[in-house]
């Protein structure tokens, strides 16, 4: 651990020469990158790069893969204190668990939840997270503080509901004022990007949905909302609007390249065409489908149609490798087996969907998602000197099906070392965990959460007695 920290004590004009470098055209040997100013300044053959810059220090890592950091296109940092409370619960858990929990958190608990989530995400190889907005009252600054202290890139949303679904629902003029202020607050920020959100379409008026989507487009940021995730929500929209949620957003003009739809699991062929024709992006959240959803997004069909999408966790499990595995597995089990599709897009698709494609869906193409000159130096060092990667015949597939976060030796954002073998650099994670263990129980007990099922622990205890 100390060797890595010493090697990367300074990353200004530093040449890194890994055994394999994951570029747009796949894993390459004999390549190196020059880090400067928190960015990938130059990429080329290692010998040539060293020759051009003979005075620059070189970190040689022959047993490591250097790859882009994962990007989570959809998560909820202020739900990390609840985590397993939703296990085994029926759909629309946000109504009975997440809204009551988030709404009850004070400023300190919002900070602790966000920092715990950021710690977990960096441990899992995520260098960027797109947060869909907290329902706690006025504590977005605590999400931002947690991201700054950990080094996690954060796209953070201001929720703009005007019909409910949050602890405080301001008047329309105040919502628009807060949205404008949120957009202005993070212009040019080195780690934070602003976003606007409506939790689900039914908690905002048509005018608000249209205006917030247009405001996001004008500011070149994402407009986020959860759509076509649960059957009951689709049916409510049919009753209220005479059409399905995605169709409703299209009718009022809220879709477009700025829009990032979470889930889109229950989509018709015509709705897929709406996504394609409007340039709307989708967060494909495979683990959320398994744990708490009603269906699986047809990601392979989306790819075939040219619909923009990236992978998201929805706050489920912070391991970018297992997220890719779940993404491919669900496409294979839900669509590939029935059609005889043995590859289901291939390992390269899921690597792209977790990095480059995720950056595009999140509005971050010009910032991160690839190892390319001029982009932020957000990358992972993955130890290939492991049984799972020995021998290696097809590294892209091996990363998707064999990789997991304990193989990540280091995580970097903006060229800075943030994590070494699962523990952060520069701050005390164990102190954070200790405070959370002390405070989380009372905070959960005070929240008006309504679970349908008892915990598994309590059932086992009753059976044992």
Automatic annotation (TrEMBL):
Spans traversing the lipid bilayer: none
GO MF terms, alphabetically ordered: hydrolase activity, acting on carbon-nitrogen (but not peptide) bonds; metal ion binding
UniProt keyword list: Hydrolase, Metal-binding, Zinc
Amidohydrolase-related domain ranges (all copies): 66-416
Gene3D superfamilies assigned: Metal-dependent hydrolases (3.20.20.140), Urease, subunit C, domain 1 (2.30.40.10)
Domain called Aminodeoxyfutalosine deaminase/Imidazolonepropionase-like composite: residue spans: 32-55
Family: Belongs to the metallo-dependent hydrolases superfamily. ATZ/TRZ family.
Protein name per its UniProtKB record: Amidohydrolase family protein
């Amino acid at each position: 651990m100390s060797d890595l920290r010493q090697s990367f004590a300074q990353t200004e004009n530093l040449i890194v020469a890994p055994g394999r470098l994951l570029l747009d055209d796949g894993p390459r040997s004999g390549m190196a990158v020059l880090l400067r100013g928190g960015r990938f300044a130059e990429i080329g053959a290692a010998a040539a790069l060293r020759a051009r810059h003979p005075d620059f220090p070189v970190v040689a890592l022959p047993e490591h893969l250097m790859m882009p950091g994962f990007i989570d296109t959809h998560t909820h940092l202020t739900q990390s204190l609840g985590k397993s409370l939703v296990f085994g619960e029926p759909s629309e858990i946000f109504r009975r668990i997440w809204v009551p929990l988030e709404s009850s958190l004070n400023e300190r608990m919002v900070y602790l939840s966000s920092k715990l989530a950021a710690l977990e995400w960096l441990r899992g190889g995520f260098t960027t997270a797109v947060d869909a907005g907290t329902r706690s009252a006025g504590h977005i600054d605590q999400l931002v503080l947690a991201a700054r202290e950990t080094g996690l890139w954060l796209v953070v949303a201001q929720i703009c509901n005007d019909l409910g679904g949050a602890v405080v629902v301001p008047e329309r003029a105040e919502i628009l004022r807060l949205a404008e202020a949120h957009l202005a607050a993070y212009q040019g920020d080195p780690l934070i990007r602003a976003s606007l959100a409506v939790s689900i379409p039914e908690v905002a008026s048509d005018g608000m949905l249209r205006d917030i989507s247009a405001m996001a487009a004008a500011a070149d940021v994402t407009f986020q909302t959860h759509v076509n995730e649960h059957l009951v929500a689709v049916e409510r929209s049919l009753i209220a609007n005479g059409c399905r949620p995605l169709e409703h957003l299209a009718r009022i003009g809220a879709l477009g390249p700025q829009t990032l739809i979470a889930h889109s699991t229950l989509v018709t062929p015509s709705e897929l065409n709406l996504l394609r024709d409007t340039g709307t992006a989708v967060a494909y959240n495979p683990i959320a489908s398994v744990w708490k959803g009603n269906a699986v997004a047809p990601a392979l069909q989306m790819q075939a149609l040219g619909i923009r999408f990236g992978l998201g966790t929805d706050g489920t499990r912070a391991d970018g490798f297992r997220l890719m595995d779940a993404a491919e597995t669900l496409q294979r089990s839900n669509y590939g087996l029935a059609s005889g599709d043995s590859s289901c897009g291939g390992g390269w698709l899921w690597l792209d969907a977790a990095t480059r494609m995720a950056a595009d869906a999140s509005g971050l193409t010009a910032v991160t998602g690839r190892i390319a000159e001029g982009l932020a130096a957000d990358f992972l060092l993955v130890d290939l000197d492991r049984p799972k990667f020995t021998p290696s015949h097809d590294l892209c597939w091996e990363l998707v099906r064999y990789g997991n976060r304990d193989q990540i030796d280091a995580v970097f954002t903006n060229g800075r070392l943030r994590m070494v073998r699962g523990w952060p650099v520069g701050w005390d994670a164990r102190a954070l965990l200790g405070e959370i263990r002390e405070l989380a129980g009372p905070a959960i007990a005070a929240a008006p959460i309504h679970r349908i099922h008892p915990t598994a622990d309590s059932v086992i205890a009753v059976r044992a007695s």
